[in-house]
Here is the input.
Amino acid sequence: MTRLFPIAPVLALALFALGALAPSHAPAQTLGNVVVLDVVEGGRTERGTVMAALRLRLAPGWKTYWRAPGDAGIPPQISWQGSRNIRAVAVHWPAPEVFTQYGLRSVGYEDQLVLPVEITPKDAAAPVHMKGRMDIGVCEDVCLPSTLHFDDPVSPDAARSPVIAAAMASRPFSAAQAGVTTATCTLRPVNNGLELTARITMPSAGTPEEAVVEPGNPEIWASDPDTSRAGDVLTLTSTLIHVDGGTFALDRSALRFTVLGDRHAVDIRGCTSG
Here is the structure.
């Protein structure tokens, strides 16, 4: 369920000097003076994959969104059509921030998003070429749905990138890393959907604690959860509704909870009944 603010003309905004940033092979893709997309190379990993990143640099005051953007956000989509020598791509999302504007919550990034992508080549000895597009939303006082294209060779022999390393280091902790011991869920029927209550036993991630619920099914919408804490137990309550308003089955193992605190974020996969 995505809400857009009315689109208005964009005022001219000045971006910082682009020439001082790491070079890319193709011209950077821009949306006016609001956002610039380029590709950063990161070289080959010990696993034999190839690291790169899609970097979005935003004008001051503008934001873009996380994979689960909240009620006021626009979910990003990436197409790899036209890429060569790519068997698989794993996208590594850095921990986002929570923003509130006009009483609506969104989840995303301000100023810059460096989105690491880990590429498994079809042929480890052959060059890799990233080509495709990124459909995003960018917002300040208005929101603009945008499509930016990329078309860049990526060398396995490129140097390691500190920009990519920093983005990888800012990913949410796993449940094990954060000391999560249990995650249980109860479900209660409500009008047109289900009320989900998750109880997660874990140390605090820092105050305040916000959370995001991803149902694991793109046809199920999850409301922004209410959160409360009693000791080591964090409780999340969210309403789940199918996009066509019908009944649905919920796979608890496919649920994904992200807890965002002022110290770190935590990624929790699945819950048990209880």
